[in-house]
Amino acid sequence: MQNIEFIVLGSTKVGESALVVHTLSREFGRRGFLVRSGKKAGMASFLPLNLLEADVRENPKSELWSLSRVTVLNPFSGIRNRVDKNTVSLFLSEVLFRVLSEGAVEDGLYEWCVGSLLTFDALVADYANFHLRFLLELSGVLGFRPTFDTLAPFADGHLKPMKALLEAGFSESMLLPLTGEMRSALCEDILKYLAYHTDRPLSIRSLAVLRDVFR
Question: What spatial distance separates the first Cα and last Cα of the chain, rounded to whole Å?
Answer without folding.
Answer: 47
